[in-house]
Amino acid sequence: MDLGLKDKVVLITGGSKGIGLACARAFASEGAKVAIVSRDPANLARAYEQLKQEGLHVHRTRADLHESHSAAEIVEEVSTAVGPIDVLINSAGAARRYDPETLDADAFRATMEAKYFPYIYPQQEVLRRMAERAKSGQGGAPGTIVNIIGMGGKIASDIHIAGGAANAALMLATVGLAHYYARYGIRINAINPGSTLTERVEEAVKLEASQQGIDSADALARGQAKVPLGRYAKPEEIADVALFLASSRASYVTGAIVPMDGGSAPLI
Ligand SMILES: NC(=O)c1ccc[n+]([C@@H]2O[C@H](COP(=O)([O-])OP(=O)(O)OC[C@H]3O[C@@H](n4cnc5c(N)ncnc54)[C@H](OP(=O)(O)O)[C@@H]3O)[C@@H](O)[C@H]2O)c1
What we know:
By secondary structure, this protein is an alpha/beta fold. The protein has eight helices and seven strands; from the N terminus they run E-H-E-H-E-H-E-H-E-H-E-H-H-H-E. It has helices spanning 18-29, 41-53, 68-81, 105-135, 161-181, 199-212, 216-225, 235-246, and strands at 9-13, 33-38, 58-62, 87-90, 144-148, 187-193, 257-260. Helix 2 links the parallel strand 2 and strand 3. The chain is globular.
């Protein structure tokens, strides 16, 4: 199936690890021109080399997206070095878990800075440019955004209230902006992963194992047994859906929030 992604310029925030890295691999394999962004140069170099060994090339840029000016800088840099951005995949961020009794206003603010704003800053910068392109009639498809958010924004969990609130806010921003920017042909969608086997989740499983005095394999098996599909997602499964949502095959899909939790939350 031709996804129409060849030569598209794809900016992937958080592209050095986990779901973002799986997206970088998937889009580059489709012949897209991929740029990845994260904070740590060592993570970027590791991802770059890994993909190079697989015969894939990506442009890499260091930035901390919790700083508002970073988004404008990286979008400008990527637009100059690679080309005007056709696709933005937002996957940079992670919210800390808090005991609800230690959850103060500072923790809520820190969580918004760790998860909400690193999505909002690049999204607003890319949207502004995509809309300008559409208004100037420069031609070509106007562009599309996929936000990797999280099921924690749909179901409150005692230890993930601040992170869940950031995710819920990102969902509202996704559907609201999709509604407005559809007039320019710009599509915005989101994926809500459940537990997905990235390094971050593997670390959390190790921690849980040590707290329970069991080994990591047992802790992982217990966690996975709670999922109706019987296992956690693989990052490449999330990337496949991001690929589809960003592709011309999803040309009439906008404002959609796709749950990918293995059937865990029977919600409409
Ligand atoms: N894995 C799951 O089970 C799961 C479930 C639901 C939702 N999600 C969401 O999906 C997204 C990706 O998760 P993941 O598991 O792939 O995470 P991950 O493996 O920890 O990767 C996160 C990526 O974001 C980068 N990053 C983090 N903060 C950043 C910042 N302020 N500026 C720039 N880059 C930043 C990291 O690189 P550097 O450290 O080099 O910056 C890394 O490349 C996250 O928003 C997460 O909340 C994940």
